[in-house]
Amino acid sequence: MYQIVQKEQFSEKVVKLVVHAPRIARSRKPGHFIILRIDEQGERIPLTIAQADKGAGTISLVVQKVGISSTRLCEMNPGDQILDLVGPLGKATHIHKVGTVLACGGGVGIAPLLPIVEGFKKAGNRVVTVLAARSKDLIILEKEIRQWSDEVIIMTDDGSYGNKGLVTTGAEQVIQREQVDECIAIGPAVMMKFTALLTQKYNIPTQASLNAIMVDGTGMCGACRASVGGETKFTCIDGPEFNAHQIDFDELILRLGGYKNEEKEAWERVIG
Ligand code: FES
After folding, report:
1. Is any atom of ligand 1 closer than 6 Å to the C-beta of 5?
2. What are the helix (H) ranges across the chain?
3. What is the pLDDT of residue 42?
4. Does 221 contact ligand 1 (Cβ within 6 A)?
5. Is the distance from the beta carbon of residue 223 to the nearest atom of ligand 1 less than 6 Å?
C-alpha cells in the first residue's frame, strides 16, 4: 500500500498528491511515469512523476478529474492508501547540453514538464518555457517552473493571465527572436500536434510525451500503441517521448477517444 501524505488542490479538477514511495523516489528520472490502481476495482491510471524527494521518500503526482477512477483518486486525502503503484516506467528523457531549449507545457502536461525543465537547466542549457491553459486557475506549478527557467511565457485561451492565445503563439514569438536548438512539448494531444507542426516549419528537433491509454505498462497488451515514423511503437516501453515530427497525432487523438461511450455509461452508472 502507498500512503498519500500530502494533498494540494490546484483547481476544481486538478490536485497534486504526494505519495510515500521511497524506492521510486530514489530511482526515478525525468520522463518516467508510474501506473496506479486505487483498489481492486480501479482502472490502471498512468501518471508522470512531477517531483520526487529522495530524503522524504515521496513522489508528487498531478491528477486531473477526467473519468471515474481519476475523480476517485482526486477525492482521496492524506492518510488514505493506494493499493498498487508500479514504477518508474518508460524511458527517461534524453537530457543533454544542446544550447537553448524551448519547453512547452499545456494544462496538466505542465507537471511532467517540470522535471524535464529542471534537467535541461542543470545540464547547462538556456531554458525558455511556455505554459498554456484555458484560464489562469489551470496554470499549475508556475513557481517551480520559474525556478528552473531563464524565462517563462504564460498563455491563456481567455486572456485571464499572461498573454491571450495558444501555446503556439508564445512558442513562435520565441523561435522568431532567438535560436532554439530543441523543443519539448507536453500536454493535450492536439496541443502537441500543433506545436510539432510549428517546430517542423522551423526545423527544430522536438520531443513530445504521449498520454496514451495504458493497461499493463510493460509492453504486453498493446493498448498504448502509437504510430511513429510509420512504425508501431508502444508508449509504455518505447516512450513516452518520441520525435514529435514523426508521431501520427490524428491516430492518437482517435485512439484516446475510443472508449468515450463506455466511459460515459460507466460515469452514469456509478455517479448517476
Ligand atoms: Fe500495454 Fe503499453 S500499456 S503495451
Report:
1. no
2. 22-27, 68-74, 110-122, 142-147, 167-177, 189-201, 235-238, 249-256, 260-270
3. 81
4. yes
5. yes
pLDDT reading at 272 higher than 80: no
Is residue 56 lining ligand 1, measured as CB closer than 6 Å? no
Mean pLDDT, the chain, integer: 92
Ligand 1 atom closest to Cα of 46? Answer: 3
CATH number, domain 100-256: 3.40.50.80
Question: Taking the CA of residue 190 as centre, how many other CA atoms within 13 Å lie in the half-sphere pointing to its CB?
Answer: 6
Mutational pocket test of ligand 1: of 220, 228, 233, 238, the residue with most ligand atoms within 8 Å of the beta carbon: 220
- Residue range 53-78, pLDDT digits in tens: 999 999 999 998 888 888 999 999 99
User: Which residues in the chain are classed under CATH 2.40.30.10?
Assistant: 2-89
For domain 2-89, the CATH superfamily is Translation factors (2.40.30.10)
**Pocket lining: 258 vs ligand 1, CB cutoff 6 Å:** no
Residue matched to cell numbers 509492453: 219
Say what percent of the chain tops pLDDT 90: 80
Sign of CA dihedral 208, 213, 215, 220: negative
**Residue whose C-alpha cell reads 517521448 in the numeric block:** 241
Beta strands in 26-69 (DSSP E): 33-37, 45-53, 58-64
Is ipTM beyond 0.90?
yes
Q: Is 232 in the pocket of ligand 1 (CB under 6 A)?
A: no
Residue 224 labeled ligand binder: yes
**pLDDT digits over 81-93, tens only?**
999 999 999 999 9
pLDDT band at 258 (very low <50, low <70, confident <90, very high): low
Q: Closest ligand 1 atom, CA of 234?
A: 2
Ligand 1 atom nearest 221 alpha carbon: 1
Q: Of 105 and 66, which is predicted with more confidence?
A: 105
Domain with CATH 3.40.50.80 in the chain: 100-256
Does 176 show up as a binding residue in the annotation?
no
